[in-house]
Predict the 3D structure of the following.
Amino acid sequence: MVKVNISAEGLRALHGSKLPGSVDIKAEQEQIRYISEHQPKNIEDELIRSTDIKRIEELLSSKSKTDFKRDFIRERNLKQKLAAHSFDLNMLWCKEPQSPFENIRNESGVVKNKL
């Protein structure tokens, strides 16, 4: 047996217009836009692609990949460090998805334009 707590709002969403205050998803469907932003296997590869570094350790002068993860979490001037390595936001999350998602367009540019 699995116990699940769900809010009144969640119940309305599950049961559609059967409950007062619910949203008719079918009627609202044309106003909803889904944006696909594919998650890479790791952020390190994305940072290498979007900067002028060849190895991830170069970004924060880390001694190893393991140290990089720790340094990345602790870094207080990440924006400066990225700028120093010619960071290009348009290159981040820009690859098209691989199988089995190759038919889904990568629309990360929509999100990036909001930044």
